[in-house]
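Before going further, learn to read the protein records used in this course. Taken together, the tokens spell out the fold as the letters spell out the chain. A record is reproduced here so that you can trace the correspondence yourselves:

***
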Amino acid sequence: MRTRQIIVLCLAAALGTAGCEEQQTDPTTPSAESRAAAALPLDLQRGRLKLRPSGQLASLYFADEVSRAIDPENYACSSTPLWAWLDGELDTWRSQEPEVFDLLYNRLLADLIPIVDALFVQTEDTPQYFGYNGEYTKIMLKTEKDTKRFWDIFSDDIQLIGAHGTMLLDVDRVAAAYEAGFTEDDGSPLTPERARALAILVRDGMLQSEVLNGGNHPILSFGAAAISTLGGPDKIVMGDGTLVSQKALGFEDVAPQAIYAHEFAHHIQFENDYFADPVPGATTRAELSRYWELMADAMSAYFLTHKRGAAMNQKRVEQFLDVFFQIGDCNFTYRAHHGTPNQRMAAARVGFNLADQAHKQGHILTSEQFHDLFVAAYADLIAPDAL
């Protein structure tokens, strides 16, 4: 039986960025509805609100859910240009608009809403676009087509959904996301009235901000995700902030394909039930997560450089992964631990090497064949590497 799971790749402490939806003007006098919402207590503290349990989901990982994973003294780890860039964007917003920042980021968790909206509310019934102005739509749709053609799993049911920060101006959508994704601190569902009141405060905060550019800001939809459920569509979610951040670092020619390929690899794991694999020596959620994520890294690298896949230059892919994998993480207590940067690159090289062999042999491994080769290499990938 297929395991019902959700995997979210959180690329920053905050999820974030934007889209190209409706524009609104600044409010003049607050409406009675806005005044009533503002009178409510705001107790949605980051790390305390949990996503609502559902018969359709097994788990959802965010960075505040932690457990001890591995001994950090055994592994080499360093910082990253991506984290530095995101920290700079966050610090700029915090310093220029401290009150709006506190309301939206600290108290209303608005940076999580666009990803939650894409995961649990939006479907391909609504036309999808990628990037603030749709500038990544063409490459995302081509990558989707190429990846589905390359791998041997059934994938016609996987929808590609964009996450956009501009949806935070839409009270109805934000309210629906609050209801779909969150509970009160005591575990009780948010009522429709409570969700709408929070959505009104989000909209009003957005309209007060000059930094957030109507939602087109990289802190408001930064993330990528793969979700597989029973009773709902399978999805790959791509936040605009993820794409914009890679453009800022000079990797927009590689990042959309690489991130999509990683998320698609999670769907291979869903389809083939690799989340049920026994992982030797794994005693924590973080160690299990590391196994799944390193496998996805290897699978994506295989597709990216295989001549019948994305057929990318290996050196260019490695340049991107060297930066991208730094997110992947030195947080050894994170229950969604992705492996250290060195481990992630080592996993990618497994994929590179297999793609190179395939280039000489002219065929594509089945997902099962690739899985078995990765399992055989796994112990070497996670061996301690501290000097």
